[in-house]
## 1
Amino acid sequence: MIKTDILIIGAGPTGLFAVFEAGLLQLKCHLIDALPQAGGQCSEIYPKKPIYDIPGFPEVLAGDLVDNLMEQIKPFQPGFTLGERAETIEKLDDGSFIVTTNKGTKHHAPVVAIAGGLGSFEPRKPLLENLEKYEDNGVAYIIKEPEVYRDKKVLIAGGGDSALDWSIFLADVAKEVTLVHRRNEFRGALDSVEKVQQLKNEGKINLITPAEVVALKGENRLEKVTVKDTSTSEETDVEVDDFIPLFGLSPKLGPISNWGLEIEKNAIKVDNTYDYQTNIPGIYAIGDVNTYPGKLKLILCGFHEATLMCQSAYQKIHPDKKYVMKYTTVGGVTGFDGSKKEAPKAVVKAID
Amino acid sequence: MSDIKIKITDREGVSHEVDAPTDMNMNLMEVVRSYELAPEGTIGICGGMAMCASCQCYVQSDHQLPEKSDDEEAMLSEAFNVKDNSRLGCQIHITEDLDGLEVELAPEEA
């Protein structure tokens, strides 16, 4: 059981900044995110896109913003449960919560802050009959352990970076790699496109374009994939051990919508007059995942909401303590790792 | 600058005729959202970067639309339920030429 003060669901910019604000109040945080890396949409959807409305940054790449936030919160030693989705929540008699992920990891905290953005990112699944029958039985949407594919016949579908990068990587691992895409053009880093071209020329990647996977076959396990050439409509069966459709991810509010929280317009209603608490005391919702009159889904608004949430969480965790907000310029930043950052002291020295 | 009329058929098959401003730097996806013709969180998920297909629509009138950018073309090649007249709403800028445009929202991806 992982224990912490504030359990944050969602490791996007809002969730990450909450760690900093909580840390200033000497509260520890742990974050859960369905994605394998921190940063939320900033890392997953648009790491290379510039953002122009972060106060103090005339221009910052989304990926760099995440890197900066990670650096900023490092002294507060946040814990991470990545690649797992928060599935269920249980309220204990003392008012604290146990949140369990889809992998069964349990987290215990007096305060839960949902910073889930648009929800957890789930792989986009192609519309194929029998698809579910072969899931974990020859069909996977995420490559967790590439060694699984050693000496196997793998067919990857998709035209983006992940399809290209994994085709390149698996060309050295798998017995056979086939890449199927609906167009001749790929949308990915130039290096990756050129590398795939080279591997194709060397006969290490079997490229089928423009084409799409139209059927899956196999008795108990996936055995064959039917690939249709979209220019001639000709269908061919390709013998495979594994089929990996990589069509990107799309966010779903998911299990959180069954936690008894008031939901409006696919977002969680909160009290914006005070602390962004939901209808369940002890559960807050901050950033893009919440809604209130006048809500704007902006990163800078998420930062503000995270800050007020932490103040309220502090009162909830320490009802008997008085606290006065301290400026970091005055109080410095004292990390849980023993590090201390503070403004340099003025020197008092006589001039002869 | 004036408003133009656009006919939008929502995902339930209900048709709406709406006024869209040409002077607000808006795109079709934003028009759909401003009239709440599709639930929040089911359209414009990436914010208009042509990086998801949640604003896919089928263009039913024969208006001359701007060419698809590489990004839009690539996204549509990975989207589901794509037809020959599919476009991403976020890539269609509202201009006076589009007066009378008729579109139907593509189904939400499961």
## 2
Amino acid sequence: MEGIFGNLAIGFIEVFKLQAITIAGMTMTLPFNIIMCLIGVLLGTLIGVLPGIGPVATIAMLLPVTFNLAPIAALIMLAGIYYGAQYGGSTTAILVNLPGESSSVVTCLDGYQMARRGRAGPALATAAIGSFFAGCVATLVVAMFAPPLAEVALKFGPAEYFSLMVLGLVAAVVLAHGSLIKAIAMVILGLLLGLVGTDVNSGVLRFSFGISEMADGIGFVTVAMGMFGICEIIANLEQKEHREVFTSKVGSLMPSKEDFKRMVAPILRGTLLGSALGILPGGGALLASFGAYTLEKKVSRNSHEFGKGAIEGVAAPESANNAGAQTSFIPLLTLGIPSNAVMALMIGAMMIQGIAPGPQVMTERPQLFWGMIASMWVGNLMLVILNLPLIGMWIKLLTVPYRYLYPSILLFMAIGVFSISNQPFDCFLMACFGLLGYVCVKLGCEPAPLILGFILGPLMEENLRRAMLLSRGDPWVFISPSKPISMGFLLAAIVLLVIIALPALRKKREMVFVEEK
Amino acid sequence: MKIKSQQDWWAGWMFIGFGLFFIVAAIGTPEFIDKMVGTRLIPGYQMGSSVRMGPAYFPVVLGGMLACLGLLVLLDSIIEEGPKVAKFHFRPLLFIAVSSLAFAYLLKPLGLVLASIILVFISAYGGHEFKWKEVAIMSVVLVIFSVLVFVKGLSLPFPVCPGFIEICPIR
């Protein structure tokens, strides 16, 4: 236990460190990391509140901006966007019955009903309290579980890494919704696209077709912005917008004594479940909130009230999605494996900064590692202090029509992509991936698995090559008894696939996701 | 044979297409096609062996898997009932794509100010409502914001004014 607090202390010192910063020619001494954290959580809340723009597109948009920042400042800000979006998403869900964020879909069910009964204030407060508590616990969970996991991972060879990536990708696909085969196909397409560019082993230019701009491969930012940003804008422009803010006055925020009594157990259960589900590959905020709502509906004494404005139905999923959002950093920080699209972007951000994600980050850059974890707690505190008083402002922002928003988003994306290499070609590629993303969505293929595959493509090939070289071309190396860890990972992946492919379970899985919608 | 799921039908073809594309690009065009054309169309890369994998090895394996999965999706489309392909909306697609391309290729010759204004106008035209006054105000605000944040604040090396204006008021 002492070790954890010692490590967290390193982190807090890093977060509160004063730095000399030069902005527009002026040099100032500021606690820069805190400021970046504040910017991150505010921006996260903002895009969480606004339906039609999610954390994936926002983080992709900001990646080029982080080129000029110190690694720690960049990662703190980007992480803040992700968990900030979980706070913001609930506001829209409760007040407008629209999920501002996909993970707050289930909050709509009971949160909006509470708002209709004039209890919007307590609902918002419950969401904030639950999220804050979950954030605190999840920070501790990350601090406790990350070091031992990283230690285990340090012993992994190429075979173990390859199998781990297979398991990670399979699990991410199984837990995502939509057709399983199509999701796996999207992963493979992503892996292939990730291979474009110079082959590190032979120096051969692959799939670049004589285009000099593709020699370094396709930029990660370009793909993410096209598949998520551009595609989201086009999809949003399809529908005529109609957005009504139900409650213009929120009223008293304070939950009653009875409310407090009823929210304690759901918050605890939600936090626990969320933390556990967040660690799983493919988990994260979305799965956590949905799981927590279902669990709460089963165990609650007031289950007849669910769907009619039960406070448990707000407290549990809101704590769970925040806990899940934070614990999904564990596989990223310890194994270098992304568990969802946002984490894939975080890997991209680390690579841009010249940090190879993996277990060595913790030992080689303890300040970065612990600073990021400490910043999560600080960020959660900021969110709960700032957001409740700022709710009025967020509601006003909700009334901004989408036709003002999307040209701005598009402009920032274009500037960001252009600035990567100062070439117009990247913008062209972004438009191409926007088109591909749009076609994929129309054909019922999720773009998120593609991004996961894209980021892991080169790593997977590298580890496969090394493992095969070490085993002298024997493919059984991955499941031989001499490599029990690798065998375990692959067996787990196969079991997952078989379970999901069983017809009975397949029906159930489809039902679950239909209910969610 | 009847196509029961249009979505899966087209998705299947898309995956098969991508899979074959990567295989052909990796190992080169088949011999008979080369003979028909007379030259080597796509040279391809070395396969290598499973011990020392060449640059073509992994892509060919993945491309093969992708094409097989595409075939499965295709089969599924004639067995199981599925949704139709939702209507494509070409107007937003076209305007969003054109506006970002126009911005990219006009940024260097025309400068950030004009390129941004062009992007805002074209993309706004792709929406449901287009009001000249609103869009004009929006573009002015966005231009000021992006010059301040990106050029001044983050010092991105963008030209601000068009190349043909000798003296630029903003530096």
